[in-house]
Amino acid sequence: MSDKSDQIFSKLRDNLDTYSSFEEKNTYLKNHKYLDQIYEKYPDLEKEVNSLMIGSITSEFGVPESGQFSLSKDVSNKELLRTLDMYDTNKEILEEEFGGEKGVKLRALAAEKDAAFDETTRQKELHRENIRVMRQEFDDRVGAFEGGPLRQLPFIGAVIPETAKYFMQLGAGWTDWFRPEGMEKIENRLLNWDPESQQYGPGPEIGIEQTALQSVLDYEDELKDKYEGVAAKATEFNELEESQRRRLETIKGSGIDEALNYIGIEEIRELLGN
Question: Which residues face 200 on adjacent strands?
Fold first, then answer.
């Protein structure tokens, strides 16, 4: 630099030294009325000032005593560099796989899928609750092993209902293990006498509700076929976005953004790679 530029640099440096934080120094430079003119006349001087500011950033954001924490006290240079690389890589994937019309379509399909499955879940819970309530109403009204024609049979009437329930569960009860909740068919209450209806077991109401529930379950299977692959793709998209959010948080928490005011991204990479 020339003598004149040396004098200007010394003056700028002295003025910067009066401030304790990077933010104050940065504000001073941004508000300097003649800085652009000075840089235009003395290009090398801008590099010197930029170097001073990078020194201020590494001192404030990094750990000066270590050469491995230049722009963050909490994240090493190696990890910051990896974060930048992964952020750029994922950004390309997001733009290529989920950008533009493809992204709009995927988001719309995912929202449509979620709304459809939310509705089937609501309907399943509604019918299952209805079935539970009607079963409980029957049990409360009837009680276990009371009355009925089988009880009137001589000698065996006292044990037939219980014996029949035992063999019914032994022979076919296991089949309910494979039925969805609410669709159980082999129930002991089927052999409980309902004096009000004068019949064994609940009336047709539970069966009607189970038919409605089965329709919802069948429709849910159709939805699974219709939206096959959408959930996986939407999950991939959401995971990528969440990863980007975390990486951006790491970048924002370092001095990278501040350093970009004074050097380019490749110089930052060089700084982190040293």
Answer: 193
What is the rounded distance in angstroms from the CA atom of residue 268 to the CA atom of residue 274? 10
d(CA 76, CA 251): 12
Both tokens of residue 262?
């004074």
Q: Answer yes or no: is pLDDT of 154 > 50.
A: no
Q: Please give the Cα distance from 57 to 61 (Å, whole number).
A: 6
Q: Please name the helix (run of DSSP H) or strand (run of DSSP E) that holds residue 194, with its range, or none.
A: strand 193-194
Cβ atoms of 221 and 215 within 8 Å: the answer is no
The label of the residue with tokens 């508000």 reads 31
8 Å CB contact between 127 and 209: yes
Q: Minimal CA–CA distance to 241: which of 46, 58, 97, 25?
A: 97
For residue 244, name the pLDDT band (cuts at 50, 70, 90): very high
* Cβ-proximal residues to 182 (8 Å cutoff; 6+ apart), any chain: 124, 127, 128, 131, 132, 210, 213
Three-point CA angle 193, 199, 203, nearest 5°: 105
Q: What is the pTM of this model?
A: 0.63
Tell me how far CA of residue 274 lies from CA of 70, 77, 78, 99, 268, in angstroms. Answer: 10, 8, 9, 35, 10
Cα separation, 134 vs 266, in Å, equals 70
CB 45 within 8 A of CB 5: yes
Question: pLDDT-based confidence at 142, cuts 50/70/90?
Answer: confident
What residue spans of 31-154 are helical by DSSP H?
35-41, 43-61, 77-98, 100-142
Neighbours of 269 (CB within 10 A): 15
Q: Phi, psi at residue 193, to the nearest 5°? A: -80, 130
Beta bridge partners of 194: 199
Predicted confidence band of residue 181 (pLDDT cuts 50, 70, 90):
confident
